[in-house]
Amino acid sequence: MLRLNSVFGGLGLGLMGFYLGMAVAALLRWAFGYPEVWERDLNVSVGYCFGLIGWLMGVGMWGRWGREWFGLKTYPSPTKGWARYFTFNTDHKVIGIQYGVTFLIVFLLAGSLAMLIRAELAVNELQFFSKAQYNSLMSMHGILMVAVAVASVIGALGNYVVPLMIGAEDMAFPRLNALTFWLVPPTAVMLLATPFVGGLETGWTAYPPLSVVTQTGQTFFNLAIITFGLTSILGALNFIVTIIYMRAPGLTWGRLPVFVWAMFVTSWLALLYTQGFAVALLMVTLDRVGGMSFFDAANGGDPLLYQHVFWFYSHPAVYIMVIPGFGIALEVIAHFSRKPFYAYRYAVGAFMGILGLSGIVWAHHMFTSGMPNYLHGPFLMMTEAISIPTGLIFLCALGTIWMGRLWLTTPMLFAIAVIFNFACGGVTGIFLADVPTDIHLHDTYFVVAHFHYTIVGGEIFGLFAGLYYWFPKMTGRMYNERLAKLHFWWMFIGFNITFFVMHWPGIQGMNRRIADYPEAYQPVNLAVSLSAFLLGASFLVFFYNMINSWIRGPIAEANPWHARTLEWQTSSPPPLENFSSPPRVTGNPYDYGLPKPPHATFPQVAPAPAGGGGGGGGGGG
Amino acid sequence: MAVHAPAEHAAHHNPLVLNRVGLWLFFFSESVIFGLLLSSRFFLEGIHQDHVDQVLGLVITIVLLLSSVTAFTAETAMEKGNSKLCSQMLLLTILLGIIFAGGVAYEWKTAHFTREEVFGTVFFTMTGIHASHVVSGIVFLAMAWNIARKGRFTSKSHWGISGTVMYWHFVDVVWVFFYPALYLVDS
């Protein structure tokens, strides 16, 4: 019997489903007496839903899960060999690596698009692209980077490390976990297909009325993002249940590593708010495909509704992006300062504070949108209030560094850079939260510089801190420290020049998302473009180092950083069941230099953790 | 921070608890979708309402509420090991669900407003999203019934039925909020 359990099976069934769905839609239209059986956006939407199911079943979900729904026996996942990365695999370590590699590729792609944008903007007037092509370029860079920011830390590092850190064998719902990853490739395919069906003109925010009247590319975008929202929600659900129920004995809430706390809070945010984006885009789709009037002012609809629903998700989304970054920064700083975590409870409380406040600040994106004026004051106050928990996180980081014996490895450098960059992003945020200054700065490059400082500076630097920190654990090999430090300083300097200078044209009033600009802005834009190329080139060092070290790097020890947390107390990479005997947690994770018991012990016959290469993980670049 | 009781290790843990909590989280998450649609209805239209069929609305609401009772009976019957009653009650639930979905379809066909009007937009979207959940619920019930019919569930192990019935109750609760917002409020 043909067992469908690889990407090829998925592609086959997915394509069949896609055409079948389009045919079903046409047939239904014919049966109900519509004059035209073919309406591109509608038929493609139905085809996509069928194709998505076909893809999932073909990639292995049928054999691992679907058969159970009909009372049949299921097959286990393969546990060895590189082929397990290309099938519906339920091991959280495999899924973490799948996410990591996928999103690094997307990051590279979206970064290249940024280079093209800066090439176009280096001098005024149009050089390389038409205005429509520039719009597509800018929208694609935006949405792909948003996807990277939302899912890379959570998907790659969260999946790999959280079950290890809490001493579990796997996530609570391993099959659901695999499902969330395999929803990502259809998302990517749909987004990358948009240039062939008219491109994206609206930016990643997809505001109506333009998004309702524009080309079919917008429908592709809507379907892709609704799918991606499902990934986020189901992944978040899985993390919450895992962290509540799968902790090792003795691992109380007060002993939980701070990165796990960050993932817990992030998951609540993703679980409760992601629907905003999905519902907003569903309304756009219904307006486009179903002939409805949510945003059609002529029929009594209101485009402002979209902005409310959209920002209801998309402001919490920045915390979905940045809290994992904070979590990694705090975690790494604690281990490399070699002293107990400063004000652990306040750090956790600060995460909770952000969780509470993030849902009631969204309209600060809409001060110039024409919403009622009486809403300006409350949203200003709420937005300013969120700097209090954020400030607490800064104080915890600084207090942990204070008087510590710093070990300035690459992860530590990146973690300190998170604190530095986000301070800059936070200070510029005040001008955007205050109504009078925001009315001037809204929709200018000041906003672009601000959110790059927070998201790239806060999260992507955190992502790199985490990637370097856990690289030995995930691959079983050590990266090249010299190249990694070179990458850090190169990226840090390039990033800070690019985006610090970018504030200036913003204050002068240069609008974002425009392909051309007046000649007066030219010198400063040339400077930004040149430093952006400098920044872009730094990632070549990163990719070279990662690929080369994964293949040829020296074998890593089980615990190269001499850290106390659980994930380092097993081999690198960990065996299939994570720990050879179940851990028992007996102390705090951050008690460095104190006469306290170890974080965890392994009762029964626990052999000393073997160095490198052991177990069921590893390999397969 | 209060020090909580240590969590059980994964291997010792009851998967049923995990499933149940996971499903509850999914309901939280889904309620945000329904909540946003409900808010959109009041944002766009206030409490204005076009003509809807009040009798039909009341009847399908009662049918849906009754179907929750039969679903509950199916679950408790399985807990007591009465597999036959469980299958019958599942079938009855499916039947009531189909009547509800048919009622919604009839309402759509005979509506006095079009989807281009804003009331039509919110009415068709809200009932449509809800009906799609009803239909998926019917599919899940049918799958559970299919397995129950083969006698694969026992009084100890019947998560397939419990989960489906929880989902069905959730869909029912959503309608408890949608029905007044669409049928009963009026200026």
Structural class of chain A: mainly alpha
Helix content of chain B: over 70%
Question: Tell me about the biggest sheet of chain B?
Answer: none
On the 0 to 100 scale, the average pLDDT of chain A is 91
Give average pLDDT of chain B, whole number.
89
- In the sheet with the most strands of chain A, the strands line up as 1-2
What series of H and E elements makes up the topology of chain A?
Answer: HHHHHHHHHHHHHHHHHHEE
Q: How much beta of chain B, percentage-wise?
A: under 5%
- As a percent range, the share of helical residues of chain A equals 55-70%
- Provide the structure class of chain B: mainly alpha
Low-confidence stretches of chain B: 1-11
What low-confidence regions of chain A span 5 or more consecutive residues with pLDDT below 50?
Answer: 610-621
Please summarize the sheet with the most strands of chain A. 2 strands, antiparallel
Distance between the termini of chain B: 50 Å
What's the quaternary structure here? Answer: heterodimer
β-strand percent of chain A reads: under 5%
Largest interface: A-B, 55 and 40 residues
Total helices of chain A: the number is 18
Shape of chain B: elongated
* Count of runs of 4 or more consecutive helical residues of chain B: 5
Distance between the termini of chain A: 31 Å
Walkthrough of the structure:
The complex is a heterodimer of chains A (621) and B (187). Chain A has 621 residues and is mainly α. Chain A contains 18 helices and two strands. Chain A has helices at residues 7-31, 40-64, 92-121, 131-165, 174-182, 184-193, 210-213, 217-245, 258-289, 303-336, 344-357, 376-385, 387-401, 410-433, 435-441, 445-475, 481-508, 522-552; strands at residues 584-585, 600-601. A two-stranded antiparallel sheet of chain A has the order 1-2. Chain A is globular. Residues 610-621 of chain A have low confidence and may be disordered. Chain B is built from five helices and no strands. In chain B, helix 1 packs antiparallel against helix 4 (118-149), helix 2 (54-79) packs antiparallel against helix 5 (159-184) and helix 4 packs antiparallel against helix 5. The relative contact order of chain B is 0.16. Residues 1-11 of chain B have low confidence and may be disordered. Chains A and B meet through helix 8, helix 9 and helix 10 of A and helix 1 and helix 4 of B.
